[in-house]
Amino acid sequence: MSYDHSTKAGNRGVVWKHYILLTVLDDLVSQAEPDSFSYLDTHAGSGLYRLDDCCSWQEGIGRIDSQVRGEHPYFTIASSYLDRGYYPGSWRLVHHYLKQHHIAANIRLFDTSGKVASAVGKDSTLDPEIDYRPTDGFKAIGTGINPDLVLIDPPYRPGYTADRQRTREAADKLNDRRVAYCAWYPLQGDSEPLEVPGRTGFEIHWRNKQTAAKNQMYGSGVVVDMRSKGILLSRLGELEKIAALLDSEVFFRNR
To answer: Residue 68 in contact with residue 28, Cβ under 8 Å?
Structure first.
């Protein structure tokens, strides 16, 4: 499945995804204080995107003033890249965080895009902590490996329904194995959102969503495992503040 993450780098949905991902990661590390940490990204992308190549970041990370970002690890790491004209992808944020905390990382990346293979292949050659495979990340989850944290982040295009179903199935497998995960999904037109039985989706809805035409996004969400749900609920005030800065509101999706 090939998808160019750079077109959406730093937009509202991505900021929401990354804020939740780094919140979960930070709590896992703070509680366990591990010497090593394994992370799996099902649809990794190249991991580094030029802001000049995309304007959607202005409606996302561009809305959050540097004075407001505070000490949350997502913002502190992202800011170090923004200052150089780049936005970091999910796996690069995670890898940067682990290196900052002197934790040995095992970063498992999957993506079938030729562009990603070219970009990430160089990183994996230079850094033994990065293990890139040009294969389908959904299949990797099915092999039974148990990382410390998984991001399920398929493109949802052009096969929205198929990706939604495969994401649900992947989340079910991780639930059975009690693996921490974040599963991102778009809220788009009249399409049915992702729902995982017994799990909660933390969503933001754009405040101007009534103007969205059919098939346009009006928000996004992240389904998480039960432990991560507790982490996020304990920080609901922070989530609401971030949503407001993104001109959005927080909603919960339960099934």
So the answer is: no
Q: Given the structure tokens 């709590």, which residue do they identify?
A: 27
**Residues 22, 24, 30, 34, CA torsion sign:** negative
What is the 3-state secondary structure of 143-191? Answer: CCCCCCEEEECCCCCCCHHHHHHHHHHHHHHHHHHCCCEEEEEEEECCC
Domain ranges for the chain: 5-254
20 close to 202: Cβ distance less than 8 angstroms: yes
The rounded distance, in Å, linking the Cα atoms of 47 and 27 is 23
DSSP codes joined into one string, 5-47: GGGGTTSHHHHHHHHHHHHHHHHHHHHH--SEEEEEESS---S
Predicted confidence at residue 158, as pLDDT, reads 80
Locus of tokens 């294969």: 135
Q: 88 forms bridges with which residues in the sheet? A: 48
The residue written with tokens 């993506």 in the block is 111
> What's the average model confidence in pLDDT over 150-172?
94
Q: What is the CA radius of gyration of the chain?
A: 17
CA dist 13 and 16 (Å) reads 5
pTM: 0.94
Which of these, 57, 79, 59, lies nearest to 68 by C-alpha position? 79
Phi/psi for 184 (5° steps) reads -85, 150
Determine contact, residues 184/17, Cβ cutoff 8 Å.
yes
- Tell me the pLDDT of the chain averaged across its residues: 90
Q: Are 250 and 238 in contact (CB under 8 A)?
A: no
Class of domain 5-254: alpha beta
Give me the count of residues in the chain. Answer: 255
Please, are residues 43 and 155 in contact by the beta-carbon 8 Å criterion? yes
